[in-house]
Design goal:
alpha/beta; six-stranded mixed β-sheet; 5 helices; DUF6924; DUF6924 domain-containing protein
């Protein structure tokens, strides 16, 4: 299925909701809140937060990883964060991160409390997608500590 609306070109990372069952609206709201919250981290820079453009549009309902890879804009973003059925139906709300650069379609899940570190490091190029995928335990990045 080709995307009816292409993913937008943006300087922020994308977090796309692909499971739009109204029963998961509360879970989506909680995920956005947690992903947006600044994180206190013992570092000279102070507080950190993920920099997302949130896409909550029924046009993306049912979109798969393959659809995202096949419809990525040119030049594609390096990665996309996806709130799919597993994200919004599971208690930990682990978000699917999709590699669009090195191994398009490769995925790893990230818990909301760790989204800031994954998004910041990928966006800045401090770490590559492979670093997070290799560290994953049962497909989920365990965080830094």
């Amino acid at each position: 299925m080709a995307l009816r609306y292409p993913l937008p070109q943006t300087n922020d990372a994308l977090l796309v909701r692909t499971y739009c069952d109204p029963a998961t609206d509360q879970a989506w709201g909680a995920l956005v809140w947690e992903a947006s919250a600044p994180v206190d981290f013992e570092h000279e820079e102070g507080r950190f937060r993920a920099n997302f453009q949130y896409i909550d549009d029924r046009a993306y309902d049912g979109v798969t990883v393959d659809d995202i890879v096949d419809s990525a804009p040119e030049p594609p973003p390096f990665f996309v964060f996806v709130a799919d059925e597993a994200t919004l139906s599971s208690p930990d709300h682990a978000v699917l991160v999709v590699d669009l650069l090195h191994q398009p379609g490769r995925t790893v899940r990230v818990r909301p409390r760790d989204l800031w570190s994954v998004e910041n490091n990928l966006s800045l190029g401090n770490m590559g997608f492979d670093d997070f995928a290799r560290a994953a335990v049962d497909g989920v990045f365990p965080g830094f500590g």
